[in-house]
Amino acid sequence: MAENTHKINAELKEYIRLLRDSCNLYAVILFGSYAQDMAREYSDIDIAVFSEDFGKDPFSEMKGLLKLRRKINPDIEPLPFSKQVFFEHGKAEFVSEILTKGKLIYKEGQIYIVRRRQNRLSQRGYNLNATWYKSKKQLFQFFRISPQFIWLAFKCYFVEF
After folding, report:
1. Domain with CATH 3.30.460.10 in the chain
2. Considering just the CA atoms, what is the radius of gyration of the chain in Å?
3. Three-state SS for 134?
4. Parallel, antiparallel, or unpaired for β 25-31 and 45-51?
5. Per its UniProt record, what InterPro entries does this chain match (predicted)?
6. CA dihedral 8, 12, 14, 17 (to 10 degrees)
7. Does the reported pTM lie above 0.70?
């Protein structure tokens, strides 16, 4: 199993390298059976791919992601997201799984800056990791802030040190 995990990790690193070369990538989150260490022989590798380039033409975006995976491993199952698309699907079960059980496997450098902002908010009494609210409206009402800040909080949710 450890040998298979090493192989999967190497394939994911290569896939992420290809993604970085092809789009404005800012996060990749592993979810599903591999994220929960419950993968079996025929399990697919579910990943959520976040880029500002996504959200315009879902069919061609998915087609591009699937084309890249053919070079590495056909078991990789990417889902393209922009922050707007992610929030539009906020009530879907797979979004909840990504948020609660996903493992961040790639993040761009600016997330470290975001982490500092999250720490400042935590000092003021806000716990951004405690609850994921069911709707955007609840989030905006709770924080009394803009959607851009909510996306910032979402990005902080996955930062692990």
Report:
1. 1-108
2. 16
3. coil
4. antiparallel
5. NT_sf (IPR043519), Polbeta (IPR041633), Type_VII_TA_antitoxin (IPR052548)
6. -170
7. no
